[in-house]
Amino acid sequence: MSEKNRQSLIPKAVVSCGGAAIGGGRITAVVRVPAPYSEATLSAARAAGAVLGWLHCGTPGDFPALPDPAALATLREKGALGIVVPVVEPEQVQLYSEIAAGLHIPYWHMQNEALLAAAGQANVPVFLSRNPGSSDEQWLLSASILQAAGCDSLVMVYERVDDAQQEGVLGGGIDIAAAAGLQGRVSWPMLTAPGGFGQQDARLGHIALGALVAGADGVLIDLQTAENVQQFQRLILDIEVLEQPLERELVRPPSRFTLPTTDTSALNVKQPQPSEKRGV
Fold it and tell me: d(Cα 243, Cα 28) in Å, to the nearest integer?
């Protein structure tokens, strides 16, 4: 690995969420599923390599109906994945913080100070999406509000940009250069969210892999169909190919028997086979 690449992989805080580790030089793959949230989709995604299930937050003005806490517990148990729940009101933080593996603040609520303050006091990891229309400084300011409120498990989420013509954006997806530039400025893990296969087709895989090479701590992939799960599995296989050249471990799905709170990050380190061990 080049010295330049080594510098881009400065060790960061490690966030444990739903039994999976995010950050610390690892690569984490997460799926986001639309409403109505399907146990079968989550279970299939876990089998394909996803380590967390993420409930889609919809779009501004069209926030989906979330399952109640009891239904969420069933979804988590049958899907065998920790669940990240989107929240847009302080009351939702209180409702879901005891059962969710993590809370997600959608990009259009990035600067909602009341929501940030409430989420910062919750005893679960918080995922903060960047509003594509906001500056990096505004995003970092929102993160500092979360920290000031008490959040010590924060993950930044670099969301897909919808404008395909925006300068520096690959295929209307992610400004990889800009995202990479932030890696050295923050100590929190950062996920890249390039969208879904239906939006980007084959390009999504290239964008996701490019973001990982540039230093992202993981990828968040939107799933819409059963075919998307198969495409996600192929992406996982491509990521596995990168493990050795990048000298980074892909986080494997946690044990279904340790959900939702036990930290199983130690199980996510793949043990080298004798033929893979390096000489002294």
Answer: 12
